[in-house]
What does this fold into?
Amino acid sequence: MKYHTQMEAARKGIITPEMKKVAAKESIDEETLRRKVAEGQVVIPANRNHQRLDPEGIGEGLRTKINVNLGVSHDCPDFEAEFEKVRKALDLKVEAIMDLSSCGKTREFRKRLLETSPAMIGTVPVYDAVGYFDRELTELTAADFLKILEIHAEDGVDFVTIHAGINRETVAHLKLNSRVTNIVSRGGSLLFAWMEATGNENPFFEHFDRVLEICREHDVTISLGDACRPGSIADATDSVQVQELIILGELTKRAWEQDVQVMIEGPGHMALNEIAANMTLQKKLCHGAPFYVLGPLVTDVAPGYDHITSAIGGAVAAMSGADFLCYVTPAEHLRLPTLDDMVEGIIATKIAAHAADIAKGLPGAKEWDLEMSKARAALDWEKMFQLALDPEKARRFREESLPEIRDTCTMCGKMCAVRNTNLTLRGEKVGV
Amino acid sequence: MKYHTQMEAARKGIITPEMKKVAAKESIDEETLRRKVAEGQVVIPANRNHQRLDPEGIGEGLRTKINVNLGVSHDCPDFEAEFEKVRKALDLKVEAIMDLSSCGKTREFRKRLLETSPAMIGTVPVYDAVGYFDRELTELTAADFLKILEIHAEDGVDFVTIHAGINRETVAHLKLNSRVTNIVSRGGSLLFAWMEATGNENPFFEHFDRVLEICREHDVTISLGDACRPGSIADATDSVQVQELIILGELTKRAWEQDVQVMIEGPGHMALNEIAANMTLQKKLCHGAPFYVLGPLVTDVAPGYDHITSAIGGAVAAMSGADFLCYVTPAEHLRLPTLDDMVEGIIATKIAAHAADIAKGLPGAKEWDLEMSKARAALDWEKMFQLALDPEKARRFREESLPEIRDTCTMCGKMCAVRNTNLTLRGEKVGV
It folds into this structure.
C-alpha cells in the first residue's frame, strides 16, 4: 500500500482513482485537485472499506455538496422507514448521508447502509456509544469512546463527527459567558455531561493522537464538530463559538501532520449579516479547511419552515466560503422528519447549494439555468419539467390547473408575457 | 385641504395622522419620518378614498413590508375563492394586497376589497383596461389607459404599478440586446405589444404629467414598474434592465416635483452575487426612492419551490436596501396559486423580511427571536407555539409525533441537547 489517506497520496504526488473521478465530475484539472487535497483545502471522504462509494470532493472551487441525516432511534426504530428515506435520498442524488442512529441495531443499520449507498456515509460515533456498550453515559470510559470510533472506521464510514473542540478550556469559557441556548449540539451536550460528571477531559481531545491513528488507518475524514454552535441568533459569533473554533483550527493542523483529512462543522443559528464574516473567520482560523454548515438559520421564529430559514443562510454561507451544507427539514425543532419532510429539506438545500454555485461562477452551474430559461421562453413545458429540480412536483402543479390557452399557464392565461412578447417580436397580433 | 399628498404635507412641515400612526408602529421619531417622506425615502401609500386603511410606511429605516397578489381572472373568476385568500392574507397581517384582477367584474371586486382591507391596496390598471372597455388591446387609446388609471384612483387604490419606463428608447435597447427571456412583465408586455402595433409612444410615459395629476389628486403612490425586469439569471443586470432603471430614476424626479410619492419595482431573476450591487444601483439611479422587489429568484431551475428561491433572494435584497417584498408562491411559473400556496408564499416572504430586519438591526426585530430562543431553552413548547410565525403548523407538526420524554421532541428524544445541558448545568444526572 503506497498511501493510507487521500491526503498522504496527494502529498506524495499520487493522483488516486478517487481524485480522477472527482476531477472529472467537477471538470477541473487532476493536478489542481491533487494540490488542493495535499494542502487540505479539499477532502475526498473515502473509507477504504466503503466498496460501493462513488467518491465526491468537498472544498474550495468544487460544487457545494449536501448531506441528509437519518437513522434509527428510540422514537423511530423502524429500519424500513429509514431505508425508504435512504432510497429516496439516493434517487435525489445527495452526495452524503449521515447515519445518526442512536438506538437499537445500529451496527446492522450502518452496515446495510454502507452496502447500499454510493453516497459518502458519515456518523457521529458518540451517539452510538451508550447503546453499543449498554451502559449509562457516565459509566463509559475514554477507551469506550475510542473503541466505538474504531468500530465505525472499520465498518467503512467515510467521515465522522468528532466533538474534540469542547475541551476543559472551552467549557470554562462557556461557564464565564452567559448564553441563551447553551449547547444545542447533541454530541457536544453528551460529552459536556460526561466531562462534568466524571471530571475528566474530553476523551477525543485528550486522546486526539489515537483518534488520528484510527482515522489514518482507514482514511476516515474527521468532521470536527462544533459542540458550541449557536442555537439562537443571540448566541451567534460569541466568544464561546469562536473559542471552540480556535481549538478546532489547532486540531486541524495536528490532523494534517498525520495526513488525516479534516473538515470543520459550523453554525447553527445566525443573523444574515454575520454569515460572510463567519465564513472568513473559519477559513482563516482553520487554515482553509473545508467548511460544513448546518444552516445557518437566519431567524429563530419559524419552526415548521426551517428548511427555508436555513436555505437562506446556507445559500449566503456557500457563496461566502462554505463547501458542504447539511440539510434542514420543515420538522426541525419539532419532531423527526417524515419522508415528505426529507424531500422538502433536500430540495431546499439543493436550491441553496446551486444558487451559491451560480454566484461563485462554478463551471456548469448557470448553464442549467440557461437551458431552463430557454425552455421557458419557448413555452416548452415538457422540457421545463425535465430540467426542473423536482420534475414530478412541477408537472403535478401545472396539471392541477390547466389554462384555456394550452401553451400558457393559469397565472396569466392569454395575458402571458412570454407568449405575447414572442408574438409581438414576430410581428403577430396579440389577442387579449 | 392643506395638502394633496403625504409628500406635500411632509414638505410643508405637517405631520399627518398617517405619519403619526406609522411612526408609532415603527418606534421612530415623527419628525424623522416626516423628513424621510418629504425627501422621498419613505412612502406612505394612503389614498384619500381608502377609508378602512391602517397606513404603513415603506422605505429606508422601516421594517420590510410584504405584498400578496390575488384577484379574479379568466381562468379563475371565482370571487369567493379570492376573498377567502383576502381574509387569510389579512389574518396573516400582510401589509399590502395587489388586486391583479384582469377579467370579469373587476371593479366590483376592487371596491369590495377596498371596503374590506386595512392593508394597503395596489393595482396594475393596464390589466383591467381590455376588460373594462371591452375592446381589443390594439384598439385602446392613450386616453383609455389614463381613464382606467383615473377610475382606480377614484376607487381608493393606494398604489398603482405604472410601466412608464418601457418607452421607445428602452424598446430600442431591447431590440439591440438579445435576451433569453425578453419581457416577462405582464403589464410591460401588454404595453410593448400596444406600442409595436400602434407605432405610438408608451402612453404612461408620453402623458406622464397627466398620470401625476391623477395620482396627486387622490394621493396614489406610483410604483414604477420594471417592464424589463430579468426573467432569467442570464438576463439580470443587463443593459436593457439598467436602461429602463435610468428612465425610472428620471420619472421619479418628475413625480417628486409634483409631490407624488414613488417607489420603484425591481427584479426578478438574479444570481445571488449580483443582488447587493443591484440594490445600490437602484438607490443611486432612483435617488433613494423605496425599492419594491419581486424575488429576486436566485435560480431558474426550481419551479414548485420558487417561494424558496425568492426567499433567499428577497432576504439578501432587503438586507442590502430593498424595502418591500412581493410574495412568490410555490405555484410561480406553473399555475395560479391555491390558498395553501398563498400561505406558504406569505410565510416564506415574511421569513425573508424578518431575517433582513434582524440583519439591519431594526428595533424589535431580534427581540422576537430572543423570546423564542428563551422559550426553546426552557423547553416551553406552548410559548414556542405562541411565538412561531405559523403557530398552527408548528403545533400540528409536533403533535403528529410525540416523544416518550414529553419535554423533548422525537428528533433527539432523551438525547435532547437542550434538556441534557440544562440538567448538567444544574448538576443533575443525565440519563441517556
About this structure: Chain A has 19 helices and ten strands.
